[in-house]
Amino acid sequence: MRILLTGANGYIGRRLLPVLIEDGHEVICCVRNPASFEYPEEWEAQIEVFKVDFLKPVPLAEAPKNFDAAYYLIHSLSAAIDDFKSLEEQAAEHFRDYVAQTDCQQIIYLTGIVNNDALSKHLESRLRVEEVLGGGRVPLTALRAGIIIGSGSASFEIIRDLVEKLPLLIGPKWVETRCQPLAVRNVIQFLTGVLLKSEYYGRNYDIGCKEILTYREMLLKYAEARGLKRYFITVPVMTPRLSSYWLYFVTSTTYELAVNLVNSMKVDVICRPNSLAEDLGIELITYKEAVQLAFDKIQQNMVLSSWKDSLVSSSSKTSLNRYIEVPEYGCFEDKKQVPIHNNSPEQVWENVRSIGGARGWYYGTLLWKFRGYLDKLVGGIGLRRGRTNADRINAGDALDFWRVLAIDDEAKRLLLYAEMKLPGEAWLQFHVVQKDNRWLLRQKATFRPYGLWGRVYWYLLLPFHAFIFNGMIQNIERYQPTLSDTAEETSTGSANRERQQVERY
User: Fold this and answer.
1) What is the overall mean pLDDT for the chain?
2) What residues contact 384, with CB distance under 8 A and at least 6 apart?
3) Residue 150 main-chain phi, psi, to 5 deg
4) What is d(CA 139, CA 134) in angstroms, rounded to the nearest whole number?
5) What is the C-alpha R_g of the chain?
6) N or C terminus of the chain: which is more exposed, having fewer CB within 10 Å?
7) CA–CA distances in Å: residue 400 to residues 140, 195, 359, 361, 392
């Protein structure tokens, strides 16, 4: 069968795609930026890439029309605080109008549980999208889920940040709100289980595990699963705004996402009874088991997707295509190069590919952390996003407060774009090149200022750039992986590379 997959670069889309491929389907992957969408070569016969932005009317003359079913996995929760409802409705209308003119027989939509009389703006938006999609020619199957637990999911990463970092957990009254979380692998099983089965057309189902837990219980059960002793204090005076700031500064979430999550967490998210799991033969995973499974993936360095890699996790921009060409005029530059003689060119390139995250930036670690803290203070994303995988990096990935614009292993070139708060735009490029029979490591920082304040910012930081950038390039050239690094890469990195193609969840 031919399947249209929206959100193919998103958290759920990246996990659903391998399952659809393994099940023998041909998949039309809808992405806004094809350059950031990568997949194994052996999938090429089964994949068609369709560049589309559903915030605009779909160009029907160029759009695929021959497919059997479509997954709608578009979500704007972290894009904005106030206007995500209109954005989501607009995208749904364009999608509905498009599929109405195709061979599509079913739309499958992953949405939120909406059984409470008083819904948050986020859940109201989810329900409105369901109404829009359900009002078209093609029958809709809506799967309504609560919190999704899996390595890289926004909810799991927030819980992880809170419990791992804070021995004493302080929470507002909404931590007693009840919900039914669901393991991400169960989500994928539901999504594929209802595919092109007519008995599920025109219907909606709540999906969740069998446990009903408060958010407080979820935090403490996470600590139990990780063997951590944690204490909890409920503070009655913590307002939604304070709660949002608390999540924002303690965890890796953006402020926009924190606000929308806090507003949603004030509403009970309980499933209506149904027999869908039994009918599809799905064995529901408990919350504690889901946490353990997520950490298995993290420890094996096999996180297939992360919410942090979504563009809306850090930026209001819908595409970074125009930033791939680094400007030359009206910019400040810091260029450095060193000869490669302490390492092989391959090892230096591996050092470049491994930059950020747990390994850091090779020089001035405290200064990088301080810069990340300052970024948080002014509403930026800070350094806490890290990187999804220690041994893999792809175009489009988040990398601390940078975004990977391009990576070319053959040319040994990495280009990053800054997503921290700046009075301008910044790029950072690394390139391992051979010239005159010798190998060089080149490093180039480019800053395009916005007006006077941008220029003041550059000159104020010029003394710091002088030794930070110099120390960074020197250490990248000479860095030798430790025995623990080598052991980790041997036990997890190679297994990841071998198993990535067939990993389903």
Assistant:
1) 82
2) 161, 251, 252, 372
3) -175, 160
4) 7
5) 23
6) N
7) 38, 37, 11, 10, 15
pLDDT at site 501: 33
Instruction: Kindly report the number of other CB atoms within 10 A of residue 470's CB atom.
Output: 15
For residues 74 and 91, the answer to whether their CB atoms sit within 8 Å is yes
Lowest mean pLDDT among 49-53, 112-116, 391-395: 391-395
Q: Cβ(379)–Cβ(421) under 8 Å?
A: yes
Closest C-alpha to 437, from 339, 336, 343, 350: 339
Tokens 């280009």 belong to 415
Instruction: Report the SS3 class of residue 388.
Output: coil
Strands 203-207 and 402-408: unpaired
Q: For residue 251, what is the DSSP state?
A: S
Grouping H, G, I as helix, E, B as strand and the rest as coil, residue 31 is strand
Q: Which residues contact 461 (CB under 8 A, 6 or more apart)?
A: none
Return the amino acid letter for 291: V
Q: Give Cα separations from 370 to 1, 367, 374, 376, 384 (angstroms).
A: 52, 5, 6, 10, 12
Which of 81, 93, 175, 172 has the alpha carbon at shortest distance from 121? 81
- Model confidence, pTM: 0.69
Instruction: Encode pLDDT of 387-425 as tens digits.
Output: 777 777 888 788 888 888 888 899 999 999 988 888 888
User: How large is the greatest C-alpha to C-alpha distance in the chain, in angstroms?
Assistant: 72
Residue 21 parent element (H or E): helix 11-22
Query: Of residues 249 and 132, which shows the higher confidence score?
Result: 132
- What is the set of domains in the chain, with CATH numbers? 2-307 (3.40.50.720), 320-499 (3.30.530.20)
Of 46, 75, 49, 47, residue with least CA distance to 63: 49
Contacts of range 415-421, beta carbons closer than 8 Å, 24 or more positions apart? 415/324, 415/326, 417/320, 417/323, 419/314, 419/315, 419/380, 419/381, 420/371, 420/372, 420/375, 420/380, 420/381, 420/382, 421/375, 421/378, 421/379, 421/380
Contact 390, 357 (CB under 8 A): yes
